[in-house]
Amino acid sequence: LPPADVNATAETNRLLQRLYALAEKGVMFGHQDDLVYGYDWKYVDGGSDVKDVVGDYPGVAGFELAGIELGKNDFLYGVDFEQIIKQMKVFNAKGGVATISIHFYNPVSGKDAWDNSVKGIDKRLVEGGY
Predict the structure, then answer these.
(1) Can you tell me whether residue 103 is helix, strand or coil?
(2) Which of 7, 19, 69, 115 could crosslink 106 through cysteines, CB 3.0-4.6 Å?
């Protein structure tokens, strides 16, 4: 199947073809921040709780960039940006699919995305609320 976006980049098309090929083999399991920290380690080259348990890396690894919008270099859970970039490249070289998420900090309280201490924030962000 072609991509939905006719202007998709060559990289996007390669990823799409890779995902189609992988889908024929089965289901991909994912784990957030798998290569940057784990149960009792942080920033260990080759580290992965999933690999420790099942003998192989997950097919998908997510990386969180909360705080990038504030100019931070260490993101949610204290993960360093350079480590994220390094491990995303390593994971890609292993054939894994990396994803990025950004849970933006609360723009009113300045706390993390899960802060719900400010009531009526929807009306402050979107005219009339939602």
Answers:
(1) coil
(2) 115
Q: Which residues of the chain have pLDDT under 50?
A: none
DSSP SS3 for 110: coil
pLDDT of residue 128: 67
Residue 47 near residue 41, CB atoms below 8 Å: yes
> What does the pLDDT read at residue 67?
86
Measured between alpha carbons, how far is 110 from 94 in angstroms, rounded to an integer? 37
Q: Any idea where the domains of the chain sit in the sequence?
A: 28-125
Cβ–Cβ contacts within 10 Å for residue 17, how many?
12
Number of neighbours of residue 97 by Cβ within 10 angstroms:
17
pTM: 0.79
* Cα of 109 vs its chain's centroid, Å: 24
